[in-house]
Structures are given as structure tokens and as C-alpha cells.
Amino acid sequence: MSSTGTAPTTKPGQRAGSVLDCSDLVRRFGSRTAVDGIGLTIRLGETYGLLGPNGAGKTTTIRMVCGLLEPGSGTVRVAGRTMHSAAGAAKRLIGYVPQEIALYPDLTARENLRFFGRLYRLPRRRLDRRVDEVLDLIDLAARADDRVDSLSGGMRRRLNIGAGLVHSPTLLVLDEPTVGVDPQSRHAIMTSVRRFGNEGMAVLYTTHYMEEAERLCDRVGIIDHGRLIAEGTPRELVALVAEKDRVELVAAGDLGRFVEQCRNLPGVEGADVGGEAGGTVHAVVRDARSLLPRLLDLTRTCGVQVRSVQVVEPDLETVFLHLTGTALRE
Amino acid sequence: MTAVLAIALKDLRQRLRDRSAWVIVFLAPLLITGLMSLAFSGSATFHAKLAVVDLDHGAAAAGLLDTLRSPQLAGTVTVHPYPDGAAAAEALRHGTQQAAIVVPAGFTAALTGGAPEPVTVLDSVDYPLQARVADAVSGSYVAQVNADRLSVATALAAGSVPQDLPRLAAKASALQLPEQVRADGLPGTALKAVSYFAPSMGMFFVLFTVGFAARGYFAEQRQGTLDRIAAAPVGRGALLLGKSLSTFAYSLAGLATTLVAARFVFGADYADPLGVAALCVAMAVAVVCLTALVIAVARTERQAEQLSSVVVFVLVLLGGNFVFASAGPPILRRLALFTPNGWALRGFTDLGTGVHGLTAVGPPLLGIAACSGAAAAATVLLVRRRRTP
Fold first, then answer.
1. For residue B235, what are the contacts with CB-CB under 8 A and spacing of at least 6?
2. Between 20 and 30 A from B338 (CA), which of A147, A239, A264, B305?
């Protein structure tokens, strides 16, 4: 089954092979700048991950890409069609999957898919065929005629993605599709997204989970405070910190004070508190072996009780910490 | 157009799957109309059973009895003679009679002098209207008799001889003031209660659509489905048109169901079916405009719910949906002209009394259009103001 529509020919203003071209996107809300000059390009068949903490500007960027929000300045082009002057044509190529379950709970799975498909003016026969294909794709054919409010959370998540696929988009935009999802559904969603990319669809995927970005994305853009601070393949990004190590300390006590003092140590490039209960200190350091004794001395000075210490290979988390000085919080 | 229809049909499908919407817009108005129809079933054919006690036995008392038994009052009043006031009062207590007129002894003699005795009307708490009729008829008769007395007295004072008194009295009593009551423009059909209360209740419950539709809009905003629609190649105009179309169709269906059932089940009568249809369409448009206004003013689902409830109750109270507007004070009748339902009820009342065409529905249609236009204009202003940074 092919999930993508006809590959568009190159249009004026479109980079060769690119499906999405954003340049200098700026959006302000009052005095706050949510997105500050973001530019990115996604090619056909590429899965692009926009990685950043909550409030970094990911959703605002996505809303501008999908034509839900007018940029203050900058342009969005989808296969050469600008969202400003050819919004209809540009939107027809995008499949938008919002973070929340944006479905009608009192309609059946099939009725939801048919409704969203009709908005894209699919002819009746083609729509019926596509709805069946998508129901198969998201493994909901057996529950097609059940109301959404009777489906499990995981099924709704899959249907939420399916609703963005009915019209066979060229670019699929997923806004944190795995937030609040159980591990099994998360795995299923990630497998599907990987498949969409393999089948030739361009995918823009926002997340604040490092491992998702590492596993799924061909390229990753790191966004913080509305700016794209780094971009590349996961390997290229990790290479930025190849000479550095990440130290993970699981500890208890005044970790805030410890992190403050830790940042002042020579050889420490960034440190922050993370972890589920806020009990893990992440630090990016040069030469962990020589720095570790001084870090442990500091824990004693600050009255911090260390439960475990681990030196880990550089990964996207290390990159983020290195670039922003803070850990990527959930 | 595909997107407009898709949005409208989706909204209607959701609305029809909501049982409370069925109950409020289709069943409740029928139920209330049925109850109103039962409650007012006797009011369209008014009749008064009057006890008459003649203690005078003179010509003047006989004249009053003749008046009560005249062909003009035959369909409205039935007269039963009683020997005395106590017997008449007993008949009222038992409900055998509904009001009583007691003509005192010496009533005729008072025509030619002496202290006049008053004619007394006895009433029953269960039949106040019948007592009012008895009072009006006897009062009118006494006024005529007094006019006769005055003419005779004037003639005597002007020099007529007492021997002419019987002739003068007979001549005076034969004279009647020329009077005629005619409702201008009305063919004269009496308004049935059900013809008033069916559209009144239909509109009352259809106005709840404002709340359903406004809450639905905010629920879609919360669910994210509104964003999903906006991400599709669907213009803002198509989205609004689709949502308006569903609200319009639902309101129209609710009103039409109530009025068709009222016509064929409860016997409501309107002179002009096209006029009824025009009023229903105009009211459905008004509901759409009011919904848009509530959505423009409210910011959350809860606010929309509260605001729409306020709008519904203010409109029905001012518009006269609970009481006949004509029975209200002048200020209420004037305020009703600021509500679309008040105008519509004027139209339905005219149609219910036999008035046809534009005479009946022209001004109401203009009135409803003005109210809808005002709501739409306020909506546009609010939306523009909200969009301005």
C-alpha cells in the first residue's frame, strides 16, 4: 500500500526534492517571541524530528507549517506552494496529526475517517477505498463501525494518526504523537511512522523524547527558546560532542545547589537536574575520568547523597545539554 | 460546497445522536403544546350559566331578562330563574350556575322616582369571567335604563305634560345608541390557544439550539477537531457556513415538527401555511445569528452554556412565549418588539386569527430580520475587535 500521493514536480522557490521549505519563520505572542527565525527543509521520504523541551516553539512552528497560524514574518512552502498565497493547494498536501485526540467521540472510526477525507474533496469511491486502506493500516478494520468513545486509548491514538492519512498526504506532520501513550502503543506508532518514511512520505515529527528522535528521524532539528540551535542527522549531532562525556548522577539532597557549583567546575560544559522525580543530575564534561573525583568531592561539600554514577556515551541528550546548558525535561 | 455539506451533515449526525437534543427540540415542545391545548381546550368556546333572581316583577326587570335571553346573547349566556338570592347563592356554591344577577324589589318603580335599588351580581371564585360578563350585561342594561330616565326627565322639564309620560318612556326605551365593534383587518376568527402556544413553545425549545450549537463549537475547539478542519483546504467561510447550515436545519426541523403536529394532532389553525413556513425559516435564521453572537462573546464552553441560557430566558420572557403578549403591560409589549420570537408570535397570532399573506407576516418578517441583522452585526464587530492585536 502506498501512503503517499503523487510526488510533486519542482516548483519555483522549491529546493530540489524538498517537500517543505520554511524560511525565517517568526511568531510573537504579545512581547514573547515563540518562534524566532526558524528555517528548515524536509525532503521526500525523509523523517525530520523537531526536538525540544515543552515551550520551545515546536507546536507554534507546526501550526505555522499547517496554516493554522499566520507567521509574523517568513514563509512556508509545501512542494513549492506558499501557505500564504496558495493555502488550499499547500494544505491539500499536508496530513496534520495534532497532539490531542482530535476525533469525534460520538462518531464511529469509519465516520471520522470519512468526514476528514471529505474535507479534502476525495471522490466518493476513492474515499471509501482509502478509508478501508487506512483502517487496515492502523489495524482498526475490525472496530471500524464502533464509536470512538468505545475504543481504547491506544486505538484512538492510531485512529488520530489515520485521520491525517486518509487523503494520502505528501507531508505528514505529527505533533508529539506519543505523549501520554503506553509503551505498546508508542512502539506501534513509531513503527508506523518509520514505515511512512520508508514508503516515500515526508514526515515532520515533533517530540521531546530523545530516543524517539534517535530511532525514527533521518535528520533532527534541536529547538530551544524559539530558535533552531542545531540541525543534522543524529550521528552528525552527536559528533558535535564526540570528545565529551555525559555523567549521570542519581542522587538526593540539595541538587539545585550542587548543579550551580558543578557548572563552575573547569571541564564542565553544562549541568542540569532531570529524571522523573528530579533526582538525576546530567553533566556534559570533558574527560570524565579526571573530573569524576572532583564531582564526587562536590557532592560531599553540598551534602548530596549519591546513589549511582554512570558515564554514558554521547547521545542527543548530551548534545542538547551541551548546546543549551540544560537537560531536556519531559 | 462539499466541505460545507460535510461539516453540516456531520454536525446534524452528532446532534441527532444526542438524546437530550431530541427531547428538548422535538419531544418537549410537543408535550407542552399538548398540555397547553388540554388546559385551554374550553377557553375557545366561552359560555356563562347565569342565575337570575327577579324580586321586582316589574317591566324594567322583565326588560333585563329579555336582554339576557336575546338572540345576540343566546350562544354566550344561558339564564335560569331563581326565587331568591339565597337559592341563587346555593346554586353558585354547587357549581350548577356560574354567576347570578339579583334584580331588587322596586327596581321598576325607581324609574319614576324613589330611591333606586342596585342590581347585584353574585360571583363564584371558579368562574370570575362569567361574573364579569353578568356584571357587564346588567351594567349596560342599567345604563340604558338610566339614559331613558334622563330623557323622560328632560322632556318633563321642558314642558311635556305628565299624561305623556308612558308614551315618552316607551319612545325613550326604544332608542338605542348606535354602536358596532369591528376588528379592523381581522376576518374575525377566534385565536385558538393551541395556535398561540404551539409556535410559542416550539420557539422556546428551539432557542435552546443556541446553547447546543455554541457548546458544540467550543467542544470542537477543545477536542482539536476545529484545528483539524482548519488544517484541511477548507476556508473559514466554509466552516462557518457548514456549522450555520446545520444549526439552521436543526432549528427549522424542530419548529416545523411542532407546528405540523400542532396542526394535525392538536387542531391548531393558521390562515396561511406559506406564512407559517416563512416565519419558521426567519426564526431558524435568527437562531443561527444568535448562536454566532454567543460564540463571539463567550470564551469557553461553560461561558457559552451560561450565556445561551440567559439569552433564551430573556428572549422568551420578553417575547411573550409564556403569557399572551397582549395580556402584558404596554412596556412588555414594546420590549417584545426587540426580540425575534416576539415578532414571530405576532405573526403566528395574526395567522391564527385568519389574516393572510403579507398583512400577517410582512412586519414580523421585517422585525425578525432586523433582530437577526443586529445580532450578526454585533458578532462581526466582536470578532473584528478580538482579532485586532
1. A88
2. B305
